[in-house]
Recover the amino acids of this structure.
């Protein structure tokens, strides 16, 4: 069972408001991923980190979305100005770097509703 | 770029019959990492199987899959469906042949098992 912790589980915001969600990866997992799962159950990768450094991110993330994984603090994903289309399940996943233990484990997700 | 195709959006089976969910992928990298995740209603995805070894069967919880690089396939199978297998199943490919890469998910297959 995954031990990735995400808070809050549910988030309701108005359009234009900031929305912030947090993730604590499994202990010992230096790699963290954020995905968005929309109402059609389609996944979209947003960003990933190795320790505090960004590995990959998509263009959308560079504009209204910001994310960080500071040392000794939870990782976070923030939407600066929420839009209706941002309503989705935001999933955080973490993984090892080891060659034989590289799979990603998902947290329970933060379900964002933008009114 | 990397992509995954799951041809069946919905599979409905009677309990006790065999399960086969199709997954094919595209990548230019010679060592792809493939995964099957299962997502039950109102839950987050959970890893079911993983593989990066050609022609080697991997098994877990009654499910099995074999990565075939010659046909770019990683089909999920189970000999006898159970009611509790009803869920969304996603095939996923790790980006750029990297164990640390983001996941490219297929569109998912909704499996419904009926008595």
């Amino acid at each position: 069972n995954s031990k990735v912790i995400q808070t809050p589980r549910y988030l309701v915001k108005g359009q234009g408001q900031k929305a912030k969600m947090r993730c604590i990866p499994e202990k010992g997992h230096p790699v963290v991923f954020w995905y968005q799962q929309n109402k059609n159950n389609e996944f979209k990768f947003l960003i990933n980190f190795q320790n505090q450094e960004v590995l990959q991110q998509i263009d959308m993330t560079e504009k209204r979305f910001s994310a960080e994984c500071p040392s000794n603090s939870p990782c976070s994903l923030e939407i600066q100005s929420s839009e209706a289309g941002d309503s989705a399940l935001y999933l955080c996943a973490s993984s090892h770097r080891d060659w034989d233990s590289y799979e990603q484990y998902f947290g329970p997700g933060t379900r964002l509703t933008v009114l | 770029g990397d992509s995954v195709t799951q041809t069946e959006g919905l599979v409905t089976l009677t309990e006790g019959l065999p399960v086969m969910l199709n997954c094919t992928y595209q990548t230019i990298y010679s060592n792809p990492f493939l995964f099957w995740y299962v997502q039950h209603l109102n839950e987050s995805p959970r890893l079911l199987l993983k593989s990066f070894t050609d022609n080697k069967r991997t098994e877990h919880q009654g499910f099995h899959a074999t990565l075939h690089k010659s046909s770019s396939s990683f089909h999920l199978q189970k000999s006898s469906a159970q009611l509790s297998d009803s869920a969304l199943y996603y095939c996923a490919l790790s980006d750029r042949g990297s164990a640390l890469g983001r996941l490219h998910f297929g569109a998912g297959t909704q499996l419904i098992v009926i008595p």
